[in-house]
Every structure is written in C-alpha cells, then in structure tokens.
Amino acid sequence: MANINSFTPLNPPLLRGEADRQGGILLIGCGDVGLRLANKLISIGHQLTIIKRSPLELAGVTVINQDVSQPFSLSSLSPDYIFIILSPSASTPEAYQQVFMDGLKNIAQALAHHQPKRVFFVSSSSVFGQDAGQWVDEQTPPEVAGFNGQILLQAEALCLQTWPSTILRCAGIYGEGRLRLINWLKAAKPVETGLWSNRIHIEDVVGILLHLLAVAQTEQHLSPVYLGVDDCPVLQAEVLDWLAEQLALTPVPKTNTAPRNKRLSNQALKQLGYVFQYTDYKQGYRSLIDDSRAALSEF
C-alpha cells in the first residue's frame, strides 16, 4: 500500500491553476528535474500530486511514497495532466527495464480507470544512434545502438499507445551541481576532435515542460515528440577548451577523429513558441563557473 502524506495547500492558488483544481497534475518521479518542476507548478497555483520512491516533504502538495516498478493503485486520482520523469537506479539493462517498462506498465494499470488529457514523458536523445555528425530532428528515424536507447524507445511507444502523449527527448542535461565536464578536465581525459555534443540547461528542461503544459491547456496541437536541446550543437573539444580557458586549467589532449555522434535541432520547439533561457553552452556555463571554481578548490 502506498504511503500518502498530505500537506496544507498554498493560499490562495493563483488563477492560472484554478482550471485544473478538479483533476490537477500528477508528477511521477521527483529527482532534480522533477523537484524544480514541482516548485514551479506550485508557484503558479496548480494542484499537484507527486509519486516518489523516497520520502519528500513539500508544502502544498500530496506526496505518495511509491516505487513504480512495483504494482500499486491510484483509484482515487483522476489527474488532467501527468508528467513522467523517471530515473533508473543504475546504468544497466535490468535497471532501465525495471523503471521504464515495468514502471510504465504499472502506472498504466494504476490509472486504468481514467484517461488524462495529456501525458508528458521525459526521454533521451540516446534513442538516436546516428554517429557521423549528421543533423537529427523529430522526423529522423531513430537508429538505436545502446540498450538504454532501445528500452527508452519501447517506453515511448508504450506511452504513446496508452495515453494522449508528448515525448520530450532531452540531450545531455547540465546545470547547478552537474560538473561532468569539469571532472573531465581534472582527469585530463583525451577528447576526440570530431566528437559532436548536444546539451540543454536544466532550467530549460523545466521551462519546456511548463510550455508544453501551457500549450496543452489551450488545446493547441502538440506533436508526439520534441527534442529538448539548445541552439548550439558543438564539438566537445571546443567546449572543453573554452572551459579550460575560463578556469585557467590545462586543455585536455586531443585525438584526431572523423565526425562522430550527431547534431540535434530544436526548431520544432522554437516554432511552438518556446524561448530558451540558455541558447548555448557559453551562456549556460558562465552561470556555473563560480560553482566550478569552488569545486576545483576542494582538490
């Protein structure tokens, strides 16, 4: 049985959230992205229920402590909109299968009594296995290579078959506390000169999800898939060299290679009216440079 903790709603809700008070919003998965999204939804007055594996105390919401990889019931809930933002416990086929496939099947069973207006499922650009530096958009057929992309593609299909859904395929997410490239510099790990990289700031992931919700609420057309990525696919070597310069670190060694990976386009989201807060890596990383310097001082 899921453990449900109720908290006193904020007073009073803003008009923006009044329309969905009856059905409200269900947020399944509340890690870094989910928690930021939850706080935004609360601030604009939405009635919110969160399902999360571990305990969470957040004023103004109902929190259900539940591992979605195990069967459960939501017979008392009839949400208008659902955000599904799941994270595997490990980077293994078993962990991906458990959270994305078993989890989605259990969610569908728990909501079998109800059809939401729309479900938003956060996926990954790893469903695209293209690996020659070519451009990729929403119309590009996936060429899945790794197990993670294969399982995510299956999960997307299940989501689209089960509910009116929109999939957000995110590129590599960066932002506060995410220092993967800084660690790359510290380790002096070589980088391929032909390796393309794509990224999106975590604040834009949240912003896009809110924008998709706003479009859905006005009953405008939403495509089944959007790519969550900034304006600027860029060679990874260029990003690392720029960061090394900003942080006064030694550039990493280079390995000469042909073009690899892919370049993702965000034109569909821009045509939908979304305005990016961080259009390229320089804008995004400038806001993190001080955090990075602090992290470096610990070593």
Task: Provide a descriptive summary of the structure in words.
It is built from 10 helices and 16 strands. The chain is globular and about 55 Å long. Strands 1-4-3-2-5-6-8-13 form an 8-stranded mixed sheet, with helices on both faces. The protein has a two-stranded parallel ribbon with strand order 7-16. Strands 9-12 form a two-stranded parallel ribbon. With 299 residues, the chain is an alpha/beta fold. The N terminus is likely disordered. Strand 5, helix 3 and strand 6 form a beta-alpha-beta unit. 38% of the residues are buried. Helix 2 crosses helix 6 and helix 3 packs parallel to helix 4. It has one domain: Rossmann fold (3-Layer(aba) Sandwich), CATH 3.40.50.720. Helix content is 35%, strand content 20%. The longest helix has 18 residues. It starts with a strand and ends with a helix.
As laid out across the biggest beta sheet, the strand order is 1-4-3-2-5-6-8-13
Distance between the termini: 45 Å
Structural class: alpha/beta
Integer tally of domains: 1
The largest pleated sheet is described as: 8 strands, mixed
- Number of DSSP strands? 16
CATH class: Alpha Beta
H/E element order: EHEHEEEHEEHEEHEEEHEEHEEHHH
Radius of gyration from CA coordinates: 20 Å
Mean pLDDT rating: 90
GO molecular function: aldehyde dehydrogenase (NAD+) activity
Domain NAD-dependent epimerase/dehydratase: 28-214
GO cellular component, one term: cytoplasm
Pfam families: Epimerase
